[in-house]
């Protein structure tokens, strides 16, 4: 639950929110026991590229509809560093982080030269790269920033050196790994079920299962020492039969793989979601993962619970 401390001005504000936004509030006399987090209004940066990207555009629309203040941030600004002075949270939708330099990443077509675009848009040019951008993102997180990467951008975990690997691989005769080939595994654009640790604040509002949109999405394996390194599983594939709608060739390979992760990195946090939690602003059931990451990631521990008159939003 979200608790709002009662003040003389509180009731009028809550009455208006209930009427305008369709929210429900219940008056209570004491807070429940358990951890408390103080929420703040974070400075949000949404990764984008020159000319715009479809995944970033849909997240942009989504943030606007839910009344988040945010700023688009482009590769040149990311590479310039000092990101914590400008942002508390950076969002990387599907395609925002390349798997390798020279491949992947949204906006993969040719970009014009600086002399081919108006001066006001030249700062939008450039690409996110592993060589130049990732070190700046690591600095941002270590300084207390929050990074949320979803869809294909969940490969960021590998680049940051977090204790995880690709789940969807097989061991060849020479002992090396290779990605599962298409004749064994292929799941494009289907709805799958994942198990959720709903005791984790980033999964606030969920039951123990949730349906996700999956489009050949990253699936992670956490190393045995992951928990000691501050990396937690938030959602995972707990069955050989996870398909809810669509079709899934080789879906049994998903079992045991991780779908969502919370990781501590320095003073900050990194949230990784393999499934398309914001796909074209359509899967309302998984918007909470994004919103919870933004607010929980930037929250501060509020200390031991106290008894006070509060209003509870459910």
Can you walk through the features of this model?
The chain has 314 residues and is of the alpha+beta class. The chain contains six helices and 19 strands. The strands form five sheets. Strands 4, 5, 6, 7, 11, 12, 14, 15, 16 and 17 form a ten-stranded mixed sheet that branches. The model is unreliable at 304-312 (pLDDT under 50).
Short description:
By secondary structure, the protein is an alpha+beta fold. Helix content is 18%, strand content 26%. The protein is built from 6 helices and 19 strands.
Rg over CA atoms? 21 Å
Give helix % range: 10-25%
Largest beta sheet, briefly? 10 strands, mixed
Q: Globular, elongated, flat, extended or rod-shaped: what is the shape?
A: globular
Discrete helix count:
6
Structural class: alpha+beta
Please tell me the overall pLDDT.
90
Low-confidence stretches: 304-312
The proportion of residues in beta strands is 25-35%
Number of strands: 19
Order of helices and strands: EHEEEHEHEHEHEEEEEEEEEEHEE
From the N-terminal CA to the C-terminal CA, the straight-line distance is: 6 Å
Explain the layout of strands and helices.
Elements: E1 2-5, H1 10-21, E2 25-28, E3 37-38, E4 44-47, H2 54-65, E5 70-73, H3 75-80, E6 89-92, H4 133-142, E7 146-150, H5 156-159, E8 164-166, E9 169-171, E10 177-179, E11 190-196, E12 209-214, E13 220-222, E14 231-236, E15 243-245, E16 258-265, E17 268-273, H6 287-297, E18 300-301, E19 310-313
Parallel strand pairs: 4-5, 4-6, 6-7, 7-17
Antiparallel strand pairs: 1-19, 2-19, 3-18, 8-13, 9-10, 11-12, 11-14, 11-15, 14-16, 16-17
């Amino acid at each position: 639950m979200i608790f709002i401390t009662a003040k003389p001005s509180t009731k009028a504000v809550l009455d208006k929110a209930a009427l305008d936004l369709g929210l429900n509030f219940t008056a209570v006399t004491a807070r429940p026991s358990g951890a408390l987090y103080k929420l703040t209004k974070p400075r949000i940066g949404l990764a984008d590229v020159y000319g715009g990207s479809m995944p970033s555009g849909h997240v942009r629309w989504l943030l606007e509809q839910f009344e988040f203040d945010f700023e688009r941030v482009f590769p040149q600004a990311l590479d310039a560093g000092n990101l914590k002075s400008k942002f508390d949270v950076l969002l990387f939708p599907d395609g925002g982080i390349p798997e390798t330099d020279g491949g992947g990443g949204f906006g993969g077509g040719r970009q014009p030269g600086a002399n081919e675009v108006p001066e006001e848009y030249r700062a939008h040019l450039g690409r996110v790269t592993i060589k130049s951008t990732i070190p700046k993102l690591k600095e941002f997180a270590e300084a207390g920033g929050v990074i949320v990467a979803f869809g294909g951008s969940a490969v960021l975990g590998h680049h940051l050196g977090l204790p995880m690997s690709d789940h969807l691989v097989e061991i060849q005769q020479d002992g090396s790994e290779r990605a599962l080939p298409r004749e064994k595994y292929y799941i494009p654009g289907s709805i799958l079920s994942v198990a959720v640790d709903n005791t984790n604040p980033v999964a606030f509002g969920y039951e123990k299962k949730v349906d996700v949109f999956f489009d050949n999405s990253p699936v992670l394996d956490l190393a045995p020492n992951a928990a000691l390194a501050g990396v937690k599983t938030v959602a995972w594939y707990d069955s050989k039969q996870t398909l809810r709608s669509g079709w899934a060739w080789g879906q049994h390979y998903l079992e045991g793989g991780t779908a969502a992760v919370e990781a501590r990195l320095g003073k900050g946090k990194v949230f990784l979601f393999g499934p398309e939690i914001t796909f074209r602003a359509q899967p309302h059931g998984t918007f909470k993962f994004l919103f919870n990451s933004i607010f929980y990631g930037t929250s501060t521990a509020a200390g031991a619970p106290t008894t006070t008159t509060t209003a509870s939003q459910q």
